[in-house]
Specification:
heterodimer, A: mainly alpha, 12 helices, globular, B: six-stranded mixed beta sheet, four-stranded antiparallel beta sheet, 13 strands
């Protein structure tokens, strides 16, 4: 079967050919899994059904950003700051991770694909971290992308040239940082829960439960007669931990009403910040431990 | 070079369950059948060879590498086809195999090209753009084989590749594996609980039972000389044996049947003539490949 394949001739079976090209290392493998997972989070390369929910969420946040931008341009008043944007979208973000996290890890468990991954040079820890990084990136894009729209809209509309754009940027940057905080927190908590089961529906339910069922605890604690209990109430739920940290770091942008908003953390801001760090670290450790053992 | 070498390899899952017990075996490149009943320790051995499981004690080397130390290096050169379902239903075969190719370190374009090559070699053409969920069992087995081939490994580990296939599908899968070993130049370890199935395509057989080595044998020498005809007559077995020996045929008595070495094309005719001359009632005359089945006809393997 060594006939030359000339122009117009039929394609001959050229037989098996050994691969002599490069075999790339750990970084490339990690990046490949990361980009595949990031696409999966938005349903890219998948059926229409898988695209439906992520793109619905994206549609909502983009429309919200456009509306905020348009209203600001019309009445010249900021109704939602960049930092407040992430807070305003927190419910949507919860549902987004509740769908995306099971897509990333529960599917792999359910379809038994992990032996195919782990029989390749990919390391188990890298698998977990690539998925986590992809989910965090997806949430970050979801929250920071619309803020970019708001920023561009506002920047074109400042009327004081570059200094106006710069002032706008100093408002925009904390918003992006806050989006990053949400992203890391939500992604790590959601991924740990989803990695426990191969059934996507259970995983999604578990994620929503952890994020939403803890809210009543926060509400109960915050009406107790003790001021300390009220100020620490936010530590009971992932969402309010992030919000508390936000209040601590970006008080001016987050609380525009002047009355301190509805979240009083007293002098415990540092504790909220520390909790974020510890919780994320714990989630990463749990995730790595989970994948060190998982066989199927 | 030795393909796989184990030295007193032992794997205990708990104090009670011993999956591999002091297994010492050495196999050369080629197609190797790993035979044993369900639960004999075949899958455990494969997982240790891949570095997915650490052995409790003993040494193991795959392609000259130690999977307990260099597991990434071993896994880069080995392709693995698991026994159970391992395909995500809502991806196309082309996309899935490409993705796994990239996870084996192939650059994006190379992964895509080799994925379609591998799928073509296992016999999937246009179907490869359809979602795997809609595939038949046979097609899924082919995708599983293609993903093990995509990164051009030096060794394929196939765990029960014919599982769930109908007889025609089994034959096609075995023919494919034989071709991979012979034409592609890739060594293959085929796990099976069916000896009769793998002996057709293997150069060597390793039989394990209860985690212990039962038998390890090279079939290459045998296959060249060992085609034999089994003759069974209802009576006069000894007379027929004597007559055939007179004609210079190699004859051995095996219970109620005679095994005659198939030396030349006319051996058939000479046996038939002898039977007719002696006027014996011929019960059976068929060709057997060799005595592999006898080599391995220990109760554990035989009853499956």
């Amino acid at each position: 079967m060594s006939e030359a394949v000339g122009a117009g001739s039929v394609i001959h079976d050229i037989g098996y050919q050994r691969y002599t090209g490069p075999r790339l290392g750990r970084g490339y493998v990690f990046g490949s899994l990361y980009s595949h997972a990031l696409r999966t989070a938005f349903g890219l390369g998948r059926s229409v059904k898988a695209k439906l929910f992520p793109w619905f969420v994206i549609g909502v946040v983009v429309v919200a950003a456009v509306v905020f931008t348009a209203v600001r341009a019309q009445i010249d008043q900021v109704i939602v700051t960049y930092v407040q944007f992430a807070d305003a979208m927190s419910f949507l973000t919860i549902f987004f991770v509740a769908v995306a996290a099971p897509e990333l890890v529960s599917r792999d468990l359910g379809s038994g694909v992990l032996p195919l991954y782990f029989s390749r040079p990919l390391r188990r820890g890298d698998y977990a971290l690539a998925k986590l990084a992809a989910l965090a990136t997806a949430v970050f894009l979801l929250l920071a992308g619309p803020q970019l729209i708001m920023f561009i809209g506002a920047a074109f509309d400042t009327g004081d040239g570059l200094s106006g754009v710069w002032r706008e940027f100093t408002d925009f940057a904390p918003g992006v940082a806050y989006a990053g905080l949400w992203a890391v927190m939500y992604a790590s908590v959601a991924l740990v829960i989803a990695s426990l089961t191969g059934k996507r529906a259970f995983a999604a339910g578990g994620v929503v439960a952890v994020f939403l069922m803890t809210a009543p605890i926060v509400a109960t604690l915050s009406v107790l007669p003790s001021t300390t209990a009220n100020q620490l109430a936010g530590l009971a739920s992932p969402a309010t931990i992030v919000q508390g940290t936000g209040v601590w770091l970006f008080r001016d942008q987050l609380m525009t009403e002047g009355d301190g908003g509805d979240m009083d953390i007293g002098g415990f801001g540092w504790l909220f910040g520390l909790t974020v760090v510890l919780l994320v670290a714990a989630c990463v450790a749990l995730l790595l431990a989970r994948y060190r053992r998982v066989a199927k | 070079m030795t393909l796989i070498e184990t030295q007193s390899l032992t794997k205990r899952y708990t104090d009670r369950v011993t999956a591999l017990d002091d297994l010492t075996v050495s196999v050369r490149p080629g197609i190797v059948g790993l035979v044993g009943a369900n639960g004999a320790g075949k899958s455990t051995l494969i997982k240790i060879l891949l570095g997915l499981l650490p052995p409790t004690s003993g040494q193991v080397r795959v392609l000259g590498l130690d999977p307990t130390v260099d597991s990434a290096a071993v896994r880069a050169r080995v392709g693995y086809m698991p026994e159970h379902d391992c395909l995500p239903p809502d991806l196309s075969a082309a996309e899935f195999v490409t993705h796994l190719g990239r996870l084996s370190g192939l650059p994006r374009t190379a992964a895509r090209e080799r994925a379609s090559e591998a799928l073509r070699h296992v016999g999937l053409y246009e179907e490869r753009y359809r979602q795997v969920g809609g595939y038949s069992t046979g097609m899924k087995q082919r995708v599983k084989l293609a993903q093990a081939l995509v990164h051009d490994p030096d060794l394929l580990l196939l765990d029960e590749p014919t599982n769930g296939l109908d007889p025609a599908g089994r034959d096609a899968m075995l023919a494919l594996i034989a071709r991979i070993g012979a034409e592609f130049g890739i060594s293959v370890v085929v796990c099976s609980h069916l000896l009769g199935e793998v002996e057709r395509i293997c150069d060597a057989l390793v039989a394990i039972d209860g985690g212990k080595l039962l038998r390890s044998a090279d079939l290459t020498e045998m296959t060249t000389v060992t085609d034999v005809l089994a003759v069974e007559v209802s009576e006069g077995t000894d007379a027929l044996a004597a007559r055939l020996r007179e004609q210079g045929l190699g004859v051995t008595v095996d219970g109620r049947q005679l095994l005659v070495v198939l030396a030349a094309a006319d051996t058939y005719d000479r046996i038939l003539t002898a039977v007719a001359d002696l006027d014996l009632p011929l019960h059976r005359l068929d060709q057997r490949r060799h005595r592999v089945a006898e080599l391995f006809s220990t109760r554990e393997v035989a009853h499956v």
